[in-house]
Write a structure and sequence with these properties.
By secondary structure, the protein is α/β, with parallel strands linked by helices. It has three domains: 391 residues, no CATH class; 78 residues; 123 residues, no CATH class. It has 26 helices and nine strands. The strands form three sheets. Strands 4-3-7-9-8 form a five-stranded mixed sheet, sandwiched between helices. The longest helix is centred in the middle third of the chain and has 29 residues. The chain is globular and about 85 Å long.
Length: 614
């Protein structure tokens, strides 16, 4: 027990360093962070813990859990970037501990330690853990549900015990007792409050896929090896109707629905009543069903999208992808004591990648809930390599460490070039590439000297330093080039009560940092594909399209934010009525952001006619 506690503290320490280093050191990044943080702030200011609202509009993109958490953080820490991101970072640390626990239970303590450190230092996981988005909370509660399942099904080991997961016939029917089952489904109910139905469907699908495989009749180990045809038949039998239904029933589906809905359904009913059903329609139909059935916001990809995205998102540990894949495939087929664990990990990754590959809308963040499984699989390879190098070809370690070195060289070359274009004055950011370059060299030298544990430890330290510098240091330098505050200051210098609008774009940071709503003028005179809703006298109605003529009549302190690329279109529509009062580079994009104000002539022309009927 003492040793396990020390191991958990080590994993927690690494994850805490990575997630909390300079967490509030950058402003919120457009577009999701300020939307979420602003929604929580508006709910707090309204005293409304039910209805998500941002920019005075109903926000149907995500359920309420993230906003509740941010609201509590605002109360404790004050409104700011650290508070907005606090719970994401805390949940990321929790996910690392869950990953440790699963690796420990399924395999051995060494696998658990490596898995916790690996997931805590994977790029895409760190993005989720350091962002004011619901991804980290979804990952955590999915991982916690799976951890509850693993703890309830697979017996604990004593410290120092190397025995792995027991054979299938010792733990049938691969489903925990009532207490664990209720706790597991309750956690999935919380996950539904984090990001909707996926919080229940996908963890259940992982456990269900594993159960389908493990509940198949075990073949006799003395019989002849299977041909490819017999293996195909065996794979198809996994989804045989009777076997499928029996397995589903063994997972207590009525309990799953009753418990998870008892947790999540009250809020969904409440917000549905409060918004006349508009939140439910927008969330379930537009942001769930539509994303699965059609490409939204240009996020498309083929079947290779997620494998490629995971190679990038799981860096630096993705350099072990090929040997890890081969290792997992071989051990999942062998009649070894660790076979069950490998099958579980394979099902975990396969369900997420397979289902999201079928969806039309694709984003790299969609599969981050399976990163703990990737970490466990990679940890198994690292653990075996450090303990029994004879079973692993030197080619893999040489290739992996060489790839890391090449990535470091690429960063030292490419980052100064990109910084010269978009981040002038920060070309030195390319020096961050020295970390993977030097770390790869050190790990390779130690590996060649047969000091494999030291080589792996050096690589883990390299990964920790790399992601900490990248997100805790380099991101702060990049943030200095965000100039939205200059635009907002230019507006505040001219008016104490400005009415801000935008033309052709609306960055959520203008709303969050400006502390006021921003109306969006349409570029084309047609209805948008996604209707916005505002509350008027307690009723939610379709938001009317703002007109410059009406806004000028209402307020002389009207300001319009647009880009230099859209300026000519705006001037054609409103000739001689506005002038540019401020301009700043558009962060990480071509062109400039402009602030327009009415000309004195336009204001003078509007005053006499303000009360005239047309």
């Amino acid at each position: 027990m003492q040793k396990s506690l020390h191991q958990m503290l080590l994993v927690a320490a690494v994850a805490t360093i990575v997630m909390f280093s300079n967490l509030g050191g950058t402003r919120l990044w457009d577009r999701d962070e300020p939307r979420n943080a602003g929604c929580a702030l508006e709910m707090l200011m309204r005293g409304d813990w039910v209805t998500p609202v941002f920019n005075a509009e109903l926000r149907t993109h995500k359920p309420v859990l993230l906003y509740w958490l941010m609201m509590t953080a605002y109360v404790v820490f004050g409104v700011g970037e650290f508070a907005a991101r606090f719970w994401s970072a805390a949940f990321a640390v929790g996910t690392a501990l869950c990953t440790y626990t699963i690796g420990y239970r399924l395999f051995r303590p060494g696998v658990g330690i490596w898995a916790g450190v690996i997931v805590a230092t994977a790029l895409m996981f760190d993005v989720a853990g350091r962002a004011a988005t619901p991804d980290s909370s979804l990952i955590f509660f999915c991982a916690l549900a799976i951890t509850t399942y693993v703890v309830g099904v697979f017996p604990a080991k004593q410290d120092g015990e190397n025995a792995t997961v027991p054979m299938a016939d010792q733990v049938r029917p691969f489903f925990p007792k009532w207490g664990y089952a209720i706790a597991m489904y309750a956690v999935m109910g919380v996950a539904m409050l984090a990001k909707g139905p996926v919080g229940l469907v996908l963890p259940t699908a992982v456990i269900g896929m594993f159960s389908l495989v493990m509940r198949l009749p075990q073949r006799d180990t003395n019989e002849q090896p299977h041909t490819w045809l017999s293996r195909l038949a065996e794979a198809c039998s996994t989804f045989a109707p009777l076997h499928f239904l029996r397995t589903c029933w063994s997972m207590r589906p009525l309990t799953a629905l009753a418990v998870s809905l008892a947790v999540a359904l009250p809020w969904y009913i409440w917000v549905g009543v409060r918004t006349d059903g508009e939140f439910l329609r927008g969330f379930f139909l537009e942001h769930n069903l539509s994303r699965a059935m059609q490409t939204m916001e240009g996020h498309r990809g083929n079947l290779l999208f997620y494998p490629v995205a995971m190679l990038v998102g799981f860096f630096p540990w993705s350099v072990f992808a090929v040997p890890t894949l081969l290792d997992t495939f071989r051990n999942a087929r062998d009649d070894d004591k660790s076979r069950t664990g490998y099958i579980f990990v394979a099902c975990w990754v396969g369900v997420y990648v397979g289902l999201f590959s079928l969806a039309k809308t694709k984003l790299p963040s969609y599969v981050t809930p399976c990163y703990p499984a990737l970490a466990i699989a990679t940890a198994c390879f690292i653990d075996r390599w450090t303990r029994n190098a004879e079973s692993v070809s030197r080619l893999w370690s040489r290739t992996a460490f060489s790839v890391v070195m090449l990535v470091g060289i690429g960063m030292m070359v490419a980052l100064p070039i990109l910084a010269g274009r978009h981040l002038p004055g920060d070309e030195w950011l390319g020096l961050i590439g020295l970390v993977p370059f030097a770390g790869g060299i050190i790990a390779l030298i130690l590996s060649e000297r047969q000091q494999r544990t030291r080589a792996a430890s050096a690589f883990a330290i390299t990964a920790t330093v790399f992601v900490t510098l990248l997100f805790g240091g380099a991101a702060a330098r990049v943030d200095r080039h965000q100039r939205n505050n200059v635009l907002l200051s230019a507006i505040d210098d001219r008016s104490d009560q400005p009415h801000i609008t935008s033309f052709g774009l609306l960055e959520p940071t203008w709303v969050f940092y400006g502390g006021r709503t921003v109306d969006e003028l349409p570029v084309i005179s047609s209805n948008s594909t996604m209707q916005s809703w505002v509350e008027v006298d307690g009723q939610w109605i379709a938001k009317p399209t703002p007109r410059v003529e009406d806004l000028l009549a209402e307020s002389s302190d009207l300001f319009v934010i647009t880009t230099d690329g859209l300026l000519s279109m705006f001037e054609e529509r409103y000739p001689g009525q506005f002038e540019v009062i401020a301009a700043e580079p558009y962060f990480l994009k071509k062109g400039q952001l402009l602030v327009l104000a009415p000309t004195p002539q336009a204001l003078e022309a509007r005053r006499p006619s303000a009360g005239v009927k047309r």
